[in-house]
Structure formats: structure tokens, C-alpha cells
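User: Modeling request: complex.
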Amino acid sequence: MHRIVNYVKAVNEALHIAMESDAKVITFGLGVDDPKCIFGTTAGLKEKFGSERVFDMPVSENALTGVAIGASLNGIRPVMSHQRLDFFLLGMDQLVNNASKWFYMFGGKRSVPITIRLILGRGWGQGPQHSQNLQAWFAHIPGLKVVMPVTPYDAKGLLLSSIFDDNPVIYLEHRWLHNLEGEVPEGDYRVPIGKAHVIKQGEDLTIVSLSYMTIEALHAVDVLERQGIHCELVDLRTVSPIDWETVFQSVKKTGRVLALDTATETLSIAGEVVAKVSMELFDALKSPPRRLALPDFPTPTSLALTEKYYRRAEDIVNIVGEMLGNNLNIKEILDSRKSFHDVPGDWFKGPF
Amino acid sequence: MTAIVDIDTKRKMLFQLKRIRAVEETIAKKYSEGKMRCPTHLCTGQEAIAVGVCAALRNDDFVVSTHRSHGHYLAKGGDLKKMLAEIYGKATGCSGGKGGSMHLIDESVGFMGSTSIVGGTIPIGTGLGLSIKLNGTDQVSCVFFGDGATEEGVFYESLNFAVLKGLPLLYICENNFYSVYSPLHVRQPSGRNIFEMARCFGIESSKGDGNDVIDVYSIVSQSVDYIRTQGKPIFLEFTTYRWHEHCGPNFDNDIGYRTCEEYLWWRGKDPIALLINNIKNNNEIGDPEIKNIEKIITEEVNEAFHFAEISQFPHSEDAFTQLFKL
Ligand SMILES: Cc1ncc(C[n+]2csc(CCOP(=O)(O)OP(=O)(O)O)c2C)c(N)n1
Ligand SMILES: [Mg+2]
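Assistant: Request completed. Predicted assembly structure:
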């Protein structure tokens, strides 16, 4: 029964299913129909659904975001894709001033059912303008939903939910997850927006994670397990709105929380997790909450400069050790790393 | 509109063309070693625009550029060693390893920076033009960008402002007919000339053969005179063609977005061969001198790569410096 596909294929299947089941769904973005098809995610769409519904665009991110909003006001469901979040920043005005507020500011008349797929970069010289993880920017704007699927299963199910949601959804897909394989059912299924996923049960400490950091957390949790520490791993999946119920339930049980993020630390989603847990569960906490995110600096480019910049499984293990007052061993993780720190591992060969 | 260009200028331009070509092709050859760990956009095939434009500029004129900026940086006089060290991520790089191939800078020769967001430096160059006007100097601010960048709103907004304020701007559009793998015709209506569209803003504009360095130099020399004396902007479109893949060292004519015939036709218009033909037809420079140029370049390029490779990496803690000027 197991059907294993990778993340790229999962995204691609969701797009095919959405376009097949609703003729009003369209897909556009730079390179959606070029030979590389946005890392393969948009493969076969133009052949199947034609160039009216699947099209490349001028390098005009701002206008085309507005165009998507306008089309969506009259029944179209646009899915817009960008190869890096950083490129989409030109479209922020349309997203923030129009898409997020249209329903609200006209007293609940027409909503804006657009989905904007943004790919997040990391490592290998992506540098200051190709690797910004600005999920907190989007989550800060009332009226936007923001999802960050980790597994291929969630990638497909959340993309379908995003496309058929009647509101603007920012779908953030991490480049280092693209080759990840996992079980993905055939056909249409939905992963609800706003529901976290408890990936692993445990009693000692709650790790609240998102996007690629969940992969590092999985490594860390494994290693911790072998040292007798049982963490509960909560993958947020949606960072706006956050599933507080699931987060609180876990922290009530463990009394400890470490929040992870792929973004710079200050005013991050991880910061919000720490704030909310501290306010709501102060009495249940056995130790101060912690967060592990990027330092508050732009991303440097050089291999040497990213060494201490990015966060990895060993950093998670170290913090967990500090929180529990244990001296934990990270040798196992370090020994298992065979490639440079600026690439995800053997399974991922690029291109970035 | 090819003017008579003196032999000294031709000699310098031939040297620059060959030098940039040698640098780009050496990067291409060594890229797979995995030591240049950043996205790298080569300008092989497009060198004549960089060389012709910069030959007509003064050292104190400003230049800003794009993701594909090696040629512009070198033609403006940017330090080769510092550029390669930057691509290798070394502390001796022009941006100390923080930037990489897409973030070159050499202020000593007026190369004020290149960035990787399409269209991003068009208003920056325009702002440098404003500063020139406010400071009352006679410099020119030159902005290099591609055909794709003319689709960004900021392009129109910048042109409008430069015309409105009468800024000393030289806008250079390198039209290589593609944005990544997207041909011009899926992005702009067919039959449009970018330089004619620009003219509608009230800016003087024209178009030239971007593979003919003499043509580029002639047009730009006149334009720069006009900008300096009239204090008004000019827009120039030069057609050209990139030989390598959009990003990286390989050739990608097999993946289906452009034809081999098209590529070969442009290879037949190699800017270096065109200039050498011109020079030989005029009996200006002989083979021995060309050989000598090649020898000098090979030595310089080898030495610069050696410098980049043996340079120290920055300290990992240096990532956490220079956020603010203190
Ligand atoms: C705002 C923005 N959108 C998209 C990209 C991705 N991108 C990088 S280079 C490039 C091509 C731009 O084409 P052009 O301006 O013609 O320059 P060329 O690469 O042809 O020299 C694109 C679309 C980007 N870097 N920035
Ligand atoms: Mg182009």
C-alpha cells in the first residue's frame, strides 16, 4: 500500500489534481513552463492544461501579484510560484495592502483565494538575497494564512487545502526538502490549514519546529532517544494561524519547550511560540523556554561564514542538554556528517 | 554609426575582451572543483558591451550592475584578484566573502556594487545620478541591466524620475533575448523595441550591436559627451547573446529552450573575433602582438586564481560583523 514519492512530485501532484478538479485554477510564475519547471514542481501542467491556464510571466512580481488578486475577485484561483522568496518581495505591496485586507476592508464581500508558493533557500552560497526565510513577515499580517509543509504528505495535502481555501495563502516550501521522500496517497486529500502535527511523542521536553528545521530536529530527537531523553516533536505545519491547542497540550505534559525556526531570531515565529507558552503556561513550565533560530544578521555567502550561522541537529542537542542540566553527546551527529555544512546531505545534489 | 576608433583604444579593448573571456572560461573550467560555492552567472559572449561602455567612461564615473556582473566589474577596472577571491569565499574578496559572485564592488574605480534581485540596482544607479547632480560634479552614473529587468516596475519609475530631474544617467540594457529560460516573446509583446519604448519617457535612446565593441564604444562615447554637457539621461539597448547556461559553467542548448542553430549563429558573431577581424583588415595589430596579449593575460589570470585559492577563508565569527557602521 505504501506509495513513496518525493516532495517535488507531491507538490506537482497537488497542482495536477487542483487544475483537473477545478477549471478556474491557473498557475503562473517565472519558469513554470520552462525546461526546469521550477525544480520539477510544475512539470506536465502546460501540456495537460494549456497555455491559457499555465503560463510564464514577465519579470514583474508586483504587478502580477495584483493581477492574481484581481483575477481571484472574479472567480479565478491563481497559484503563483516564485523560485525564491526574495524575488517575491517586490510583490509585498499588493499582498499586504490588498490581498490580506480586501475581504475585511469592504465589510466581508469578496475574498481573495490566491496561493503564493515561495521557495526558501539555505546554504551553498545563496547569500544575503537568495535565502531569506521571512515567514514571520507574512504571519504578522492579519488576513494571510501561512503554511510550511515538511513532509511530502503534508506538501501535497496542504497545497490542495491552500488552493481551495477562499483566502490568500502563502505556501512556503524549503529547497532542502525538495528531495525528501515519503508516503503520499494517490488522489485528492487535504491536510487542514491550522493544524500542527505531533511527529514524535515524548515526556521530557517539547520541541516546536517548522519547515526544514524539523528535519534537523528529527536527527536530534533520535540521538537524544539513545541517550535516554524522550522529546516530543511538534511540527507546526501552519505558522499562521498557529495550532496553539496542540502546542499547549504538549508543553503541559513535558513542562519544557524549545522552539526552532529557519529565520533570524528576533520577532521570529519561534519567539511567538516562546511568548505565548510563557504567558499561557507559566505555572506548568519547569525551565525557561528556549528558542533556536538564526543570528540576527543577513546570510553571508562564503562557506566559512555560514559555518556558525546555520543551525543543525547538534545545536538542538546542546540546548536540550542545557535545559535538562545534562551533558549530552553530539559526537554521533558530527561523525555522521560526510559533506560540507552548506549542503543538506548525500541525498541532495542540487542545483540550488 | 560606427565611428573611427583609434588603434590605442582598440588595443585596450581587445585586451579587456580577451581578459574577461579568459577569466570567465577559467571559472567555467574550474567550477566543478566545488571551491566556488555560490551561484555564478558568466558573461561569455556578452563581453563587448561591458568593454565598449567602460572604455568610454572615466574612472570616477559610477557603475552598478546585476547578477551577471563579472564583465562590468573587470571592464571598469575592478581588481581581478579581489573578484576571484570573493567567488572563492575568501577574506581577501572584494566583499570579504559576505557577497559572492553576485555582489561585487570596487569603489576605487567607481564600481559601486552589483546585486542579485532583478532590477534592483536601476534605482540605485539613478540615485547615484541624483547625488552627482546635487554635488555638482560632471560624473556619469551608468546602470547595466538585462532585458528581463525592463519588465520590473522599478525600471519605469526610475526612468521617469531621471527624466523628470535631468539626471546624468547612462542606462545600458543588455538584451540577450532571455530571462533564465524564458524567451523575450513570452514576456514582452513581439515587435517591441525596448529602446523605443524607453524613448516614450522622454529619454534619448538608441540601439546598437552589442557584439561589436567598436559600435558599442562609438555610441557610448557620444552618449557620455551628451550626458556630461546636457545633464540629461540616455538609454541604450545592445543586443547580444549568452553562451553558457543562465547560471553555471555548462552549455544548455540541449534542454530545449533555445536552438543549437541560434546558438551557433551567435557564436559566429564572437565579439573577440569581430574586433580582431576589424583590426586585421586595417593592418593595425599583427599576430605576434595578439599572442603577446594572450600570454600576459594567461599569466595574470593564473596568478589571480592562485591568489584566490591560497587566500585564507574569513573567520567564521566574521559573519557577525559589519551589520552597522560604527
Ligand atoms: C526580482 C527577481 N525576480 C526573479 C529573479 C530570478 N532571476 C535571476 S536572473 C534572472 C534573469 C533576468 O533576466 P535579464 O534581466 O534579461 O538578465 P540576464 O540573466 O539575461 O543577463 C531572473 C529572472 C531575481 N533574481 N529577481
Ligand atoms: Mg536577458
